[in-house]
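Ticket #218: bound-state structure for BIS(adenosine)-5'-pentaphosphate.
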Amino acid sequence: MRLLMIGPPGSGKGTQATLIAQHYGVEHISSGDLLRRHVADGTAIGRTVAGCLRRGDLVPDHIVMDILRKPVEAATRRGGYILDGFPRTVAQAEAAYRVAEPLGTEVRIALYLTAGRAELIRRLLARGAQTGRSDDTEHVISHRLDIFDQSAVPMRDYYARRETLISIDGDRPLAEVTSTAITGLDRARQQLGLPLHHAPVQRGVGRGIDVDRATIYR
Ligand code: AP5
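RESOLUTION: The complex was predicted; output attached.
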């Protein structure tokens, strides 16, 4: 199972990726969590990207590709992954495809979560108030949503043309979104001739890295 989760900030990519990864017994890799971990740890990459994260700007492609390479390769060897937050642009999608295609590890399915702007803002402001995540403020949320909107149509077209794209209304109760996603994924995998069996759920395998999110939100 190799799956990409695409959707605007607050659409539930991270939440659903965790649950879907647990269901299939694969790893959840989040580009945002990896970047926030670098910032929290004060690495050279963290110092470079801190401003982008604070402002809600996209981090340069080469940095994102660089931090994702090892976790994605390792997860591929261990049976697969759900990648949340990557790609953000068609340029990133094409770059990833160029790396994966010769290795036969390209992603075949992308899951696209949607929700209305007012609901997205409500969720993110609520999370900001609860966790203090530094980009969950009104001004930065609005900027993040605008950035997403600029790439949304080309990204959807890209995946609809090249891979199987599953679009899901994320503005419903959490469990309902998860079960719709799993039904859609099983159907898509059957159509693509991908094996349907999956590893038994293992506790603690839901995330590719051991992240205590509370420490990386600030
Ligand atoms: P990232 O961490 O990926 O943030 P994001 O895309 O803005 O997404 P969020 O984490 O805010 O939302 P989500 O869709 O994951 O929803 P979640 O499940 O958390 O990226 C952060 C930054 O890193 C970017 O701005 C950029 O600077 C950089 N970056 C990352 N990847 C990059 C890339 N590829 N290229 C360049 N730069 C990159 O849910 C949100 C809230 O809603 C939660 O409180 C949750 O409990 C709630 N919720 C979820 N589902 C439901 C539901 N169904 N009903 C009610 N509430 C719900």
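RESOLUTION NOTES: The beta strands are 2-6, 27-30, 81-84, 109-114, 164-169.
TICKET STATUS: resolved
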